[in-house]
Amino acid sequence: MPQTRRDYYEVLGVDRSASPEELKRAYRTLAMRYHPDRNSGDPAAEERFKEVGEAYQVLSDPARRRQYDTFGQAGDGFGSPGGFNFQSAFDLFDMFFGGGQVGRGRSGPRRGADLRLQVSIGFEEAVRGVTRTFEVTKPAACEECGGTGAQRGTSPTTCTECQGRGQVQRVRQSLLGQMVTVEPCPRCRGEGQVIESPCPACHGQGVVDQRKSIEVQIPAGVDSEMQVRVPGEGAAGPRGGTPGDLFLVINVRPHDLLTRRGMTILYDCPITVSQAALGDTVEVPTVDGSATITIKPGTQYGEQLRIPGRGAPDPRTGRRGDQVVRLRVVIPTKLTERQRHLLRELSPPDGKPHPVRRGFFEHLKDAIGI
Ligand SMILES: [Zn+2]
Ligand SMILES: [Zn+2]
User: Fold this and answer.
1) Ligand 1 centroid vs 158 CA: distance in angstroms?
2) Cα of 154 to ligand 2 centre, how many Å?
3) How confident is the model at residue 100 (pLDDT cuts 50, 70, 90)?
4) Minimum-distance ligand to the CA of 190?
5) Least enclosed by CB within 10 Å: which of 22, 121, 123, 182?
6) For the segment 17-30, what is each residue's pLDDT rounded down to a tens digit?
7) Measured in angstroms, how far is the CA atom of residue 227 from the centroid of ligand 2?
8) How far is the CA of 197 from the centre of ligand 1 (A)?
9) How many CA atoms lie within 13 A of 308 on its CB side?
10) Across the chain, what does the average pLDDT equal?
11) Residue 360's pLDDT is what?
């Protein structure tokens, strides 16, 4: 059931400049308020609990916060590295409050593991998006027993310890006062069922390694170190559990001429001293073929031109950035006697250069994004 995910800052009720302390305070308040032990059986509270956990997990990590600030969650299948789930929310809560004991009982089969796959794609493929097929060997439901883990002709039986609930109740003291916590049943490890005669093909696991080919649409605009989530293509859950997700960890191979800073594509364009002084029109490469730019007479080293809409797209919205062309005046190293003479003619009478215009370095910084 796809859901529109809310902005992490909005979830925690803080503004975008919030300090780590403010984030921590907001998380603490909300995690306490929505903890399922205080909101028994309220699915809305459970959802909020998970949501604040996920938001805090991302925003409390400086590297992931920076990535989030730049790229956001990037819609479906994106920006949730690690596959944040309900259990993760508890793990985080335990970690945060130093409890380590506030275990959440789970019943039923366990979810399969998330898998990660390193994927190398070309610069232009990253900008345009690409469909790739991968051969993956991963745990899949055992065909011999249909994924139950029980030998053919037998079936798992209900656990007598927990009567199939998969969890046992325990009363304990905690930071939140006295709480009734539910913990996984030790006999069936929370699964509610036990297998008397395990399937010989999968040794009762219900899963065996299988080779599978998976086709994935990698969205336009991805960049190195981003992850693309492919829901349900991780490892199958043992004994009928839901499968985990597959995460493609993207590596973008460098381009010969172009580089990227987020949505901006950069090109260093060499021009001659005469082109800089007199102006010219030149062809420059872009990811959409070549484009013509006009160099103004009197262009200085490092001046930049912007080609709108020729950058990389934002993977969420598809809106494209710009290409920035940095003009690099190349000073000749070999001169004929006549050229030497002409260049001497160019020298001002006092032999000193004109001052560089104010604001020049500021422009440079803006465009490169540093
Ligand atoms: Zn089996
Ligand atoms: Zn049990």
Assistant:
1) 18
2) 19
3) very low
4) 2
5) 22
6) 899 989 989 998 89
7) 37
8) 11
9) 0
10) 84
11) 57
Higher pLDDT, 242 or 260: 260
Question: What pTM was estimated for this model as a whole?
Answer: 0.60
Close Cβ partners of 284 (under 8 Å, ≥ 6 residues apart): 267, 269, 290, 291, 292, 293, 307, 325
For residue 80, what pLDDT band results from cuts at 50, 70 and 90?
Answer: very low
Cα 122 from Cα 22, distance rounded (Å):
40
Residue 202 Cα, ligand 1 centroid: separation in angstroms?
A: 4
What are the structural domains of the chain? 1-103 (1.10.287.110), 105-156+195-253 (2.60.260.20), 258-368 (2.60.260.20)
- How many angstroms does the Cα of residue 155 sit away from the middle of ligand 1? 11
Query: 242 CA to middle of ligand 1, Å?
Result: 16
Give me the pLDDT at residue 104, please.
Answer: 42
* d(CA 348, ligand 2 centre) in Å: 91
